[in-house]
Structure formats: structure tokens, C-alpha cells
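Q: A reviewer asked whether we had any structural model of the full assembly, not just the individual parts. We don't, so I'm hoping you can provide one. Inputs are below.
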Amino acid sequence: MGVIRNTKSVQLVTEFFNSTKEAIGVVDLVEKFSEQMNKSTIYRILDRLEDEGKVHAFLGVNGLKHYAKCKDCSHTEHVDVHPHFQCTSCGKVECVSYEISIPKLPNKNIAQAQLLLTGTCERCTS
Amino acid sequence: MGVIRNTKSVQLVTEFFNSTKEAIGVVDLVEKFSEQMNKSTIYRILDRLEDEGKVHAFLGVNGLKHYAKCKDCSHTEHVDVHPHFQCTSCGKVECVSYEISIPKLPNKNIAQAQLLLTGTCERCTS
DNA sequence: TTTTTAATGCAACTCAGTTGCAAAAATAAA
DNA sequence: TTTATTTTTGCAACTGAGTTGCATTAAAAA
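A: Here is a predicted structure for the entire assembly that you could use as a starting point for your response.
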């Protein structure tokens, strides 16, 4: 497993994630960088960044893949235990700093919990 | 909005959901009934049953649509506040009877919470 | 500067889910 | 029951997210 190469495309994507705390859907990212790089390239870069723990992935309400770099990321290995919030009005998606309490289920071994909260964000809640 | 018609296909799908407490992915359901009915028919029947509150829908770990009929269903209007569990070993998916505690977020209005638990089920946890 | 290895672009593909439309089956009306 | 009305179905074609093989290009190592 070689080190991730510092290509122009990798720099662009990395810079983007450093510039925002919000999460972004891959589709939007592909659109955003459509002039700069290929769709496949984005998917592959995101895979690599996730492997490295630089960003973390999760699914939005529609089942679309989203990525974000939050302060939990790059704690050596990212364990995704925080919820995500998606605004049904403006579409904004973000990580929520809140530790999920994982319910104990008899005779089951729960390894992971994914909590997705939907509603209206501060801007859209008038 | 007319009443849902009692066709052969609707009966089959309904009977299936009455026969199990487990959830099932649409893809699996399409496969299961591939001899009896068309893919589109299944998708449309599930839409209707969901509208009627007879079953409820949610997304599995892979983002694939799943349906289940649990005791919460058909309480007039189904509010999906219970978590779902997906076994990473045998693939079984089921509803979990456990009320999610929805975190309050400052200035946000949270309308819904979707919690997906993954791990190993009683049978696969040796 | 050359060699090695990883990353990219592209086009073609997979697979879940959707849609338009004509034909068939339910229900309602007569 | 028979006819008229409305919903449902099958089919085939489509959409859109995500993947893949492969030749070319660009990084990093030698």
C-alpha cells in the first residue's frame, strides 16, 4: 500500500474539504470539479482519502454517498459514531457533534450505528 | 385517491409481509417474485402499501431500499422512529423495538431520525 | 535522467429504480 | 350480469449513481 500521491486533483479535493465543515454529496463534488477532473478520478480520490482517514463517508437521506472532513477525522482511525444532519429545505448536510448512545440488543453484537437526522437547519427554521 | 385494488400480485406481496417480521430488500423481493410479477409492479405495489401505512420503508447499509411490516405499521399513520438492524454476516435485516432518543440541536428543527445498526445477529454471534 | 509505480481520462459498463404506454384486470354502474 | 370506468400490470426503454479495464500521463524513487 503506497502513500497517496500529491497530484493536482488530490490537492484540489483536499483543499475543498479543508475549507468547509459541511459534508458534500459525491454528485455535487463531481459537478463542482467537472472542469478540473474526471468523475472516476473523484470517486477514486475519495476512496483513498477515506482509507487514510482524512475524510469519512456516509449516506444521505436519498442513499447518495456523502463525504465530510470533521474534527473526528484523522484521529488515526476514524470511527464514525456521530450523527449527520440533512436540511430538507436547503439540502445542507453536516456532521453533528453528539455521541450516539448505541442501544444494547440481547444476543446481538452491534458494531456500528448510523444516525441520520433530517429537518430544517438554523437558516431554514424561520 | 382510490382504494388499493386487491390484485393477485398485491395479495402475494401482502401475504409475504404478513408472514415475516423481518425486513426485505426490494431487490430480493423482485428476485423472490420474479416468476409471479414484474419488477415495476413490485416497486409500485410497495409504494402503494407504504402510502397506506401497511409497510414502512428504509435504507439498508448499502443504500438499498428495504421494506418491513412491523407492529408499528398501520397505526393509522406510520411514524418511523424505531431503528433497524442489519447483520453483516447473514444479511438479515429487522426492525428494532427501541425508541430512539432524538438529540435536540440548537436552532434546528429535527423532524425525523433514521438509525441503522450493524453487527452480528443472535445466530451469527457465536 | 531514467525507471518504477500510482493516478488519470475515457468510454463502456452495472445495477437500482423510474416511466410511458398499450393491454389486462378490478371495481363501479347500469 | 353485462357494460363502463378506473386502476394495475407488463414490457421495454430509460435515468442516474457508481464501477471498471486499459492505455496514457504524472509522481516519486533510484
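A: Points you may want to mention in the reply: Residues 2-3, 5-8, 26-27, 30, 39-40, 43, 63-65 of chain B lie near DNA strand C (CB under 10 Å from a C1'). Chain B has a mean pLDDT of 91.
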